[in-house]
Amino acid sequence: MLDDLKQVTKPQIIFEATGVYSRRLQAFLDMHELRYVMMNPLEAKRKTKDDLHQNKTDKLDALYLAKLQSEHPQRLAYVQSKEYQELMANNRIYEQASHDLITNRNRLHKAIQLTFPEIEHLMVNPRGKNYWSIVLRFPHPDIVLETKEADIIDFLKGLSGIGKKRANDIMQSLIRLAKVACPAVKKDSAHIRGLEMAINNILSAEEACQTALKEMTKLAPKRDLEILTSIPGIGENTALRIISELGDIRRFNNPSQLNAFVGVDPQVYESGNLTAHLSISKRGTAIGRKVLYLAINQIQSAKKAGNPSHIADYYEKRKRSSETASHKKAAIASIHKLLRTIFALIKNDQLYSYDVAKHNQRLLS
C-alpha cells in the first residue's frame, strides 16, 4: 500500500471511521505522516445519498467516498498527540469497566437473593471492596455458622480499615444474620460459583477504573484540569473524562466546531421556504455526550447544594420555558452552554467565576 501511495503526488485519502477496524489504517497513515479524511459513517451516508445505489459493497462505498472527495473535498482529520490518544484510550477502558461494574453488581444482587439475602443488611452501604470480600468469603449462611468465631475475626481484621473491635461487631452481626437466614439454595449450588464470578468481575472492574483514572491524571494537562474543576459540580473524575473525550480544545476555532465534534449540533432541514431544526446530529463521540450529560446533572446538584452557575440557571430557565420540556431536552441545551463555557475558559486561560459569567450573560441578552 505504501509503495502505491508513493507513486501518487499528494494523494487524497478518505475512509470511514469504523472504530477499532479503521484504527490500524489510521495508525499506518500517521506513522508515515500521510494526511487523510476520516468521516463519520452517518455523515458519509448523508453526503453520498444523492448517489443512490441499491447494492452495498465495500468497493462501491470506497468509490462513492472517492467521488465525494474529488467533487467536494472534505476537511482533513486532526491528528491528536500521543498523550491525548492515550487519554481517550484510558477513558474508553474506564467506560467499559464502569459498564461491567454495573452489570456485575446487578448479577451479584440477584445471586445474593438466592444464597444469603440477609447479608445485604450487614453494612449501611452494601458495596465496596470490604463488603464484596466478606460476601466472597461467606456467600452462604451455612459457611458462616461452620466457621469459628476467631477465624471470622481474623479474616475481618485483614480487611482495610477494620480493627479488632470493628471486626468483632461485624462478626456478631454476620452470625446473627446467618442464624435467621433462609436461603433458596444449598452451599454447594452452582449459584455460589455465579456469585463468586460476579464479585471477582466487580473487583477487577473497580481496579481497571482506578488504574485508568490514575493514568488519565498523569496525562491530562494540569491547567485544563484546574479550569474544568473550577466549574461548580465538575469534579476531577468528570473533568478528566471530558478532557479525554474532547482532546485539545485549543484546536477549535469557535464553540460551534466543538459542538459539531461532540455531535450536539442541531440538524437543519430545508425545503423551499421551510427551515426546520431537527434533533442533534449525533455525529461525534457518543461517550463524550454521555460524560457531558453526566456533568450537567452534577452541575444541577451543585446548585441545589449552594454552588450556583450560569449553566444551572440556564437549565432551569429552559425547564420553565415549556411545560413539555423534558429533563433530557433541557440537559442537551445546557450542554451547548457548558461547551461554550469550557471553550472560553480554556482559550482565555481563566478559572470559572459565577459573577463574571452572569455579567457576560447580561451583555449578550
Could you provide a short overview of the structure?
It contains 17 helices and 4 strands.
pLDDT averaged residue by residue: 89
Count, helices: 17
Number of domains: 3
Number of strands: 4
Strand-residue proportion: 5-15%
Residue ranges: pLDDT <50 for 5 or more in a row? 268-278
Helix and strand sequence: HEHEHHHHHHHHHHHEEHHHH
The portion of residues assigned to helices is 55-70%
Strand order of the largest sheet: 1-2
* CA gyration radius, whole angstroms: 27 Å
The biggest sheet, with number of strands, parallel, antiparallel or mixed sense and barrel status, is:
2 strands, parallel
Alpha-beta content class: mainly alpha
Span between termini: 56 Å
| General shape | globular
How would you characterize the overall build of this protein?
The protein contains 17 helices and four strands. The protein has three domains: 2-79, no CATH class; 83-217, Helix Hairpins (Orthogonal Bundle), CATH 1.10.287.4070; 220-364, no CATH class. By secondary structure, the chain is mainly alpha-helical. 27% of the residues are buried. Helix 12 packs antiparallel against helix 14 and helix 15 (310-321) runs antiparallel to helix 16 (327-348). The chain has helices at 2-6, 20-31, 41-47, 58-71, 82-115, 129-137, 141-146, 149-157, 164-180, 190-219, 222-229, 236-246, 255-262, 286-304, 310-321, 327-348, 354-364, and strands at 14-16, 37-39, 266-271, 274-280. The protein has a two-stranded parallel sheet. It has a two-stranded antiparallel sheet with strand order 3-4.
